[in-house]
Records
---
Amino acid sequence: MQTKRVVFSNRGLPYALLAPQLAITFVFFLWPAGQAIWQSFLREDAFGLKTSFVGVENYLRLLREPDYLNSLSVTGVFAVSTTVLSMGLALLLAAAADRMIRSRDAYTTLLVWPYAVAPAVAGVLWWFMFNPTIGIMSYLLEQLGYDWNHRLSGTDAMIMVVIVAAWKQISYNFLFFLAGLQSIPHSLSEAAAIDGAGPVKRFFTVVLPLLSPTTFFLMVVNIVYAMFDTFGIIHATTEGGPSQATNILVYKVFEDGFIGLNLGSSAAQSVILMVIVIGLTVIQFRFVERRVAY
Amino acid sequence: MVENRPWLTFFSHAILILGVLAVAFPVYLAFIASTHPQNAFISGLVPLLPGDRMIENYGTMLDAGISTSGAPPLGVMMWNSLVMALSIAIGKIIISILSAFAIVYFRFPFRLLAFWAIFITLMLPVEVRILPTFKVVADLGLLNSYAGLSIPLIASATATFLFRQFFITVPDELTEAARVDGAGPMKFFRDILLPLSRTNIAALFVILFIYGWNQYLWPLLITTDESYYTIVMGIKRMVQVADSQPNWNFVMATVTLAMLPPVLVVILMQRLFVKGLVETEK
């Protein structure tokens, strides 16, 4: 690890400086995480009177439980659709904004503010628009002959939460894509233009490959976002329903642990989620160290 | 600009304008809904133009709330959100700038261990350790308190990293000069490092304020007392009316007020916001 050539020498001071952060980290992060791991090997009986050690039984049960397997695939569909939709739209907008000279900053201001909207609030906004009785989107869809009802149709509910999650993330992706586009030297596009490549061809053969580090970075960030930061969206709108159609993993941990009080199972789910986060973080950091993807 | 293509420019503007409209439309609609009387939502289509009840609706919500839905006045909830957002932002900045200073400017046993202990918090978002963390907070008697709302969220690896990256770029000559002049570590920290980190602190503050204000799951878990509800989680209580359709005009007034502070922060401090966003992700 990198250090300073010049350092201060003091025995107690560095520990005192680190103490607050380490104390909070230990009490509210490491200790609960350890508890979750320990808890995941235990089973409590229905009345909470007796706890017994069951080894990996909780994990095996989870993998046999249809609801959990369903939740895994729901999370996969949700994360991939959100990432693709949000990054696709953001790239389109960033590519358009990159062409602008005077109006670029104005468009940026108008596009970045949804970052500040809380996921739960974003959920309520769209929930209102898709409301089957009075919502404007469901009204428009009805005019087109589609009977929208996210309270009954799992597909409708999934489409709705994907739209909400993507809407909220567009501003973030837009900022990073725009920064990525602006760091590509103009000389490359100019050289391609002299060789007779049109704007579309230039975009796909010159700009897009050079943008791949940004794209890859955003892909990881978006998947993390869709998996872990969207609890508010689900909780404020569909609550995992109808019939488990939008029950993503973080929501299921909450539901099983906090409402269902199935402690062992919830802890095992937490541990699986931790493993996923650790995996994604490692991918992100390995990539950040190299910076270039090809 | 490589070449002049008026059509492509026109097309780009069209895409951007469509994008801006699509992004803003839900918020516009929420604001419009908050200016109408309640009977505008009984049937048919939501209104698309402003109504005349704006002042009454916001007035009612700010100092009375909807008692039937179990929601305290918005004024109280916004105050709670503000306290929570500010304590998270300020607390995080203080503890992480101190620990980054210790990690960069000192050599001591277990330095690497401390670094990794902080690093690992990056991998443990609240969402994956809900129950055990709740239990810790309950055991400490912090349920329904501002301390319980903020302290568990103020440990942050990203802020520590940001300051660490920045401190590494500060020239060693400054440290040497300070030492030659007889400054101890804390004097160097206060008189040289802090002033140099001003922009970083401000950028981080913007990001952390938004993060704190928008917390949802955590306040939902640990507040059962209405007087500690934050506005973002309070919305859920209003939407959740068992018997009928929610009072959309009041809900949307709440939604508008819940969005306002963080959105204003982003728009007014856009430069700092972008800087903070780009740097915390490195």
Note: The mean pLDDT of chain A is 85.
---
Amino acid sequence: MTATLAVPPLATSQDSAVELVGVRKTFGRGPAAVTALDGVDLRVGAGEFVCLLGASGCGKSTLLNLVADLDQPSAGRIVRHTARPAVMFQEAALMPWLTAARNVELPLRLAGLRRSERRVVAGELLELVRLGGLGDKRPHELSGGMRQRVALARALASAGDLSGVGAGAGAGAGAAAPAPALLLMDEPFAALDAITRDVLQAELLRVWRATNTAVLFVTHDVREAVRLGQRVVLLSSRPGRVVREWDTRQAGADLVTGSGEHAAEVIEEITSRLREVISSHAAA
Amino acid sequence: MPQPDVPPGSTASEVELGRSTPEPQGSTGATGAADTAGGAEPAGGTRTATATGTAGADLSDLSAVGAGLDALDAPQRDSGRGVRRVLTAALPPVVAVVLLVAVWQVLWAAALWPEYKLPAPLDVWTSFWSRVRDGEVVGILWTSVHRAVLGFLAGVLIGTPLGLLVAKVRVVRAALGPILTGLQNLPSVAWVPAAVLWFGLNDAAIYFVVLLGSVPSITNGLVSGIDQIPPILPRVGRALGAGRLASARHILLPAALPGYLAGLKQGWAFSWRSLMAAELIATSPRLGVGLGTFLNQGQSFNDMPTVIAAIFLILLVGVGIELLAFRPLERAVLRARGLTGALG
């Protein structure tokens, strides 16, 4: 039975959520032009959790903007096999005039859902991030961690009927049929204190498993990347290129259980590589 | 493993599972193991039962920590103090007005100026009250207030789309921005002679002056409201799938509401002032008797009590509209956003 359980995730990871081929992004023109990304090849499988790691200036956020379709690449191809990806930023950026539930409803409203449907989906999503009874609170009445959870629920809602939860109304979605959803996260926990961040990382993993969404998670924290990601991708800085990838499934699981020699090794290895990348800029 | 009860592919029950996982009353270890096994772990076989058991315990620990954080971090609401609050808000202005009248009474009693320059407070009150009793005040107020309100509403209808255009279209801002700011600084009474020459002594002339007073304020209020929106909000809107129009309706306008309201308030004040100026200068039997005309009559008949009563009425309308319409609106808007600092 363990075997049958292990198979579906493998099968779905055959198809990809998003593929980047030779993506380049240059800002400005002429001698003042800055190349943020140069020849980035990256593939995120359906339902896969990938962490993008890099020092400042490596174009992590630029890459996310390109995938989110908020910006266009200068060269290369981005092929998404998902609907519009959900995006989560470092700030919760909730609309201060809307209640938590209305914030979650906003993308559904923009998608043209009826009021009653919106309420049901928003309620389910708030339950998912464990804010069930707090839908009528305003953002200023919530703590930073709670706001970030509302933002997560809103992001999932914006993935529309692909979020896995939204399909609950339709119910016809078979295991093989639905297009994979994609969640893009730009250092979403960077502004939180350590304990809140720890809790939210666990929450995110739980939500990810519950919704089977592909996640592209940008961070500069090696430990966070190893704990969350199935795969960690290291980007170089100015211009951003993929330096190396690590399979961190085992290390991440070890980190959660606390039996962490292997995890410590992986973190050490990635950190030293990151240091190399950074110090190469001092020489140049 | 609890997995087999769950119909495969039913997403709603997947959520159900995800939600129930951290609850402590279930067998936490087992659900924790199912959770990790379901989470795309091809290497699941290599992991021992004890390891996953600790993972489950860890998870419930974390959810307890999370609940504690929620309880500690959520900002507390302070409860209002009812009667005391109303008293501290209402008493100071009342005392100020009483003092003002007292000083007036003392100055009048000292007889420093002749009676026709500084009448007794009681004389002014009698003049005012006699007009209230015979109903003349109602007609005067109606003439002025309905003009001001209509003019103001027309100003809102023109100023709002204009403000959106100026704020969001660069060429329009470059072209109209300075003109609007100039118009806002130009006392609209300066338009009265031109309006009378263009339109004649009629309502059109008066509305023209009122519009030129209110539209620039409303427009500029909306523009500064939009300029002050944190740039992350429209970006989020775009990420959530808002097009240009939807973004204006669901993000820009509500986000700009505090600035817009300030503009509306100023727009109302300018409408009211412009109207008084227009009525004071452009008097004609065809225009009826508004507050400005009433004030003008007081001057013509050398009737100081009437002049002061008219000024009092003009003030009363201004303060009344502010207190009855704009203050509650502003309070509701600011309170909903947690911006209660200025409200006291």
Note: Strands of chain A lie at 16-27, 34-45, 49-53, 75-80, 86-88, 182-186, 214-219, 231-235, 242-247.
